[in-house]
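User: I'm curious whether this sequence folds into something compact or stays loose and floppy. Could you predict its structure so I can see for myself?
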Amino acid sequence: MERAQLPLNQLRAFEAAARHLNFTRAAIELCVSQGAVSHQVALLEQRLGARLFRRLPRGLALTDEGAALVPVLAESFDRVGATLDLFVGGRFREVLNVGVIGTFAVGWLLPRLHRFARDHPGIDLRLMTNNNRVDLAGEGLDCAIRYGDGAWHGTQAVPILDAPLAPLAAPPVAARLKAPADLQRETLLRSYRADEWPRWFALAGAASPPLRGPVFDSSALMIAAALSGHGIALAPPVMFANELSAERLVQPFAIALPAGRYWLTRLNSRRETAAMRVFREWLEGEAAA
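Assistant: Here's the prediction. I'll summarize afterward.
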């Protein structure tokens, strides 16, 4: 059957009748007569050479052939409807689902999003935050921004922003710190990557103390604890520029550990769409600026 010859009226009549299992209710939905729905279904059955309904005294029942056709039609009509919904004001808006680490979303992305919306009104950007653990396929994401070394199985990773780690503390706590060794007397707030503080101390040329501070799965949450005076966070200063410029947060030492960077990732099996390309290039441009 050629695509140009698809019997759309017949298929629509059948799909509505299959949902209601009643020609009259299908006719009301389609704003036609009950006879018109029955006629269209009969034409489709004739075209396919198969019965799609069993006529019962009080309605309809699908045959095996009809039951096989229903889900295909329902999904197709839903996809057409969803695509039509993307036309707003005479323009097509492409949906882009992006997973983002909460720290990156709040500390870097959100302050810049107004520029993306202004320059790319045809892209409907939808953000879902995570703590760096993400299932691209399972969560229906087109791409995701992650922190690490860029090595994720089956994934293409594009570097976006370097984010070395440095000690960050509230001003009263930072005032007690004159040398890296002074950190040994303080509560050190940690991420789930247990090697970060020891690596920073090694870089600073100081002995790493036993680590007993709280463990956080989010740098943003760790910084919230540091701002409250509960300890010293090892986090990327680039994500907390506002707090640093407002002097609510202090970086007492210039030493920064190159532990990783932020990446834009997508599955190798996922073709890069026009919206994905635009978003990637925009991220790269913002990071370079």
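Summary: The chain is about 40% helix and 20% strand. The chain has a mean pLDDT of 91.
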